[in-house]
Amino acid sequence: MKTHPPANTLQFGHTFTDHMLTIPWNLFTGWGPPKIGPYAPLALEPSSTVFHYAQTLFEGMKAYRDKEGKVSLFRPDMNMKRMNNSAKRIALPTFNGDALLECIKELVRLDKDWIPKEPGYSLYVRPTLIGTQTTIGVSPPADALLFVICCPVGPYYPKGFKPVALYGTTEYIRAAPGGTGAFKLGVNYAPGVVAQREAAKLGYVQNLWLHGPEHYLTEVGTMNMFVVFKQPDGGLELVTPPLDGMILPGVTRDSVLALARSHASHTQHIPNLPSNLTVSERPVTMAEVKAASTEGRLVELFGAGTAAVISPVDRIGYMGEDVLIPTGEDGMGPVSRPIWKELVGRQTGAIKSEWSVTVSE
Amino acid sequence: MKTHPPANTLQFGHTFTDHMLTIPWNLFTGWGPPKIGPYAPLALEPSSTVFHYAQTLFEGMKAYRDKEGKVSLFRPDMNMKRMNNSAKRIALPTFNGDALLECIKELVRLDKDWIPKEPGYSLYVRPTLIGTQTTIGVSPPADALLFVICCPVGPYYPKGFKPVALYGTTEYIRAAPGGTGAFKLGVNYAPGVVAQREAAKLGYVQNLWLHGPEHYLTEVGTMNMFVVFKQPDGGLELVTPPLDGMILPGVTRDSVLALARSHASHTQHIPNLPSNLTVSERPVTMAEVKAASTEGRLVELFGAGTAAVISPVDRIGYMGEDVLIPTGEDGMGPVSRPIWKELVGRQTGAIKSEWSVTVSE
Q: Which residues carry this modification: N6-(pyridoxal phosphate)lysine (chains A, B) (predicted)?
């Protein structure tokens, strides 16, 4: 057993728990028996196709402990479904999502003491599927390995929300029609690092992925994005780009949309969320965001993802100037604040919801 | 020592030699000492970034043995240069190409008895560079591993050239402006497997990558491509798409261009290559190829790459019909045949050239 580092020293993805889940697959024999064993190196032939042709996909999900000690996962069915969609896109094997989820629950139960007791902490669960065929032809792999590792993680903003500055990337792309942007594949990440690094060099925290000559806003670094506009009637429009094949169908994205829509349609009331709210999945251009900023119609802009949940933005470096975005005193805006509160309440078990799936009572 | 399988049973990428080269890198300590050891599995933490974010690139080059037993590599400087360019694109470490080449020569010398004695056989050398940082943040990796493995390979067409049928892919893309198509990265390969599989289902051997609404021809499967048109004056135009950021700068592509240009400019004479030859790097659309086919102006179309050298094409399935492409009785055409002969002569040492770099006398 490894020693558990103090919670306040945890960095995202640096510390892993005692165990891991591995499930091998072969074209002729199918899925082998799932095995939970000690966290340990993988021994793979240097000819394994993952090393050559990037045959890899992954998921990210979190296990939370509530005040009574109950451990739960947040909407894990969505991760299982997306993981299978990712597998199909690069000819890796698909699997029974319910069965994998039971194995993951077993792993989380075994390592649940790794979830720090402090509020805001959780266990990040990383299912990964790689091609392990040992012959280097470019083809659907005849061997694969699914593995799941876990790391205890802290709150993304331990000292309260700190809005970030984005750099609108025009030199590199994240996705294109006919490509892989809608799938959680390794191939979407390695090429984005240089864009991030260039944004950092220019003094921005993350990059904003733009698409096409119109500079459509698509994603923020490795998160989905939302923007809020003030409408002529005084109401607010919450907008996120549509799932057009270039946008990752994020679980947090879907949750933000579902909460906002149920509030807007009066199916349920989210405390403090403005009542005159329209929810849109539609394309947004930088020209529209820039004009709204200038005319005082831009209300807020934020990223949404499993790691940070909600990540407010206060400016976008774009074509040589900064587009300013309002943020509240607490760093958040009038739409993101109540949605974040509802979302985190449901994730941590403070607010009961069917999105929360019990792992351990 | 492994036993050497009979040459005629060798399949591309199935058999590896006795040794491998490994060179570790760390952000703070730089490149570690190169080590040539037994071919053996790599032990990597499951959190290694190559498994999650596809931080991998590779090269492909061949070592040939001539009749006198001399072993040489073909234009390896180009592979070293391209490998460094690939590394920069995904924030992996760059290196001294000359120094790496010396290490690769040492490895090839050690395993040169693996090159089958039969004509047409060679040793395929696969340098690979992967991110091995063990923390799962999306960032330039702080650790990497460069390794080189080798496999004995046979002639791509052991029974003479067999032209292949291509399927013009319109649903998936290989590359897009601002993406990674011009770099030899793993991320360009995993997403292409489904397109290949769909082509195969429809009865085609490989897929043809098209770009944009104009359906520009870009690459053939994992090869560069060339097309030859008959011109109004009876001359021939050899065309390949330009290096516009979406085309892999192939060593075979460059060699075909260099040979054809030196012949066209009368700098050197390639036996049997037509004299009235124009060489163009310019975009070509499917509409142009289709019109030329209908009007009898299409002379030939072929793929070019390290594995197959030249791969002639006899038809392209496109938008529900087949575009027919002429081939000679031997499967080749009037431009590819003499260029292939010159190229293979230079590769195998039968024709002296400065492109051939001696590894062992």
A: 184
Rounded to the nearest 10°, the torsion over CA A286, A287, A291, A294 is 60
What values do phi and psi take at B309, rounded to 5?
Answer: 65, -80
| Cα–Cα dist A294/A289, whole Å | 9
The neighbouring-strand residues paired with B145 are B24, B130
Chain B: residue whose CA lies nearest to A91: B194
Shared domain check, B136 and B221:
no
d(CA B70, CA B57): 30
Question: Domain boundary at B131, B155, B179, which?
Answer: B155
Burial class (CB in 10 A: 0-12, 13-18, 19+), B185: buried
Question: Cβ contact (<8 Å) for A91 and B193?
Answer: yes
Contact between A46 and B50 using a beta-carbon 8 Å cutoff: no
Q: Answer for the pair B328, B223: CB distance below 8 angstroms, yes or no.
A: no
- Residues 6 or more apart whose Cβ sits within 8 Å of residue A291: A297
Q: Do B200 and B342 have their domain in common?
A: yes
In Å, how far is B354's CA from the nearest CA of chain A? 30
Six-digit token string for B236:
């021939």
Question: How far is the alpha carbon of B58 from chain A, nearest alpha carbon, in Å?
Answer: 6
Q: Which residue, among B231, B320, B315, B322, has the nearest Cα to B277 in the 3D structure?
A: B231
Contact B135 A180 (CB under 8 A): no
Nearest CA in chain A to B129: A51
Inter-chain contact A47–B177, Cβ cutoff 8 Å? no
What tokens appear for B245 in the block?
A: 């950021």
Q: Which of A51, A137, A140 faces B50 most closely, judged by CB atoms? A: A51
User: DSSP for A273-325?
Assistant: --SSEEEEE---BHHHHHHHHHTT-EEEEEEEETTTEEEEEEEEEETTEEEE-
Per-residue pLDDT reduced to its tens digit, A240-285: 999 999 999 999 999 999 999 999 999 999 999 999 999 999 999 9
Do A13 and A145 belong to one domain? yes
Yes or no: say if B119 and B126 are a contact pair by the CB < 8 Å rule.
no
Q: How many CA atoms lie within 13 A of A177 on its CB side?
A: 8
Q: Give the dihedral of Cα atoms B226, B230, B231, B235; nearest 10 deg.
A: 90
pTM of structure = 0.97
Flag whether B2 is in a domain. Answer: no
How much is the pLDDT for A315?
97
Q: Mutating which of B12, B53, B170 best tests the A interface, going by the most A Cβ atoms within 10 A?
A: B53
Task: Identify residue A333 by its one-letter amino acid code.
Answer: G
Chain-chain contact of B90 with A135 (C-beta, under 8 angstroms): no
Q: What is the CATH number of the domain that holds B304?
A: 3.20.10.10
pLDDT digits (tens, 9 = 90+) for A70-120: 999 999 999 999 999 999 999 999 999 999 999 999 999 999 999 998 888
Domains of chain B: total: 2
Range of the domain at B105: 7-155
- The complex's ipTM? 0.97
Of A12, A138, A151, which is closest to B189 when you measure between CB atoms? A138
Interface test with B, best of A193, A197, A207 (most B CBs within 10 A): A193
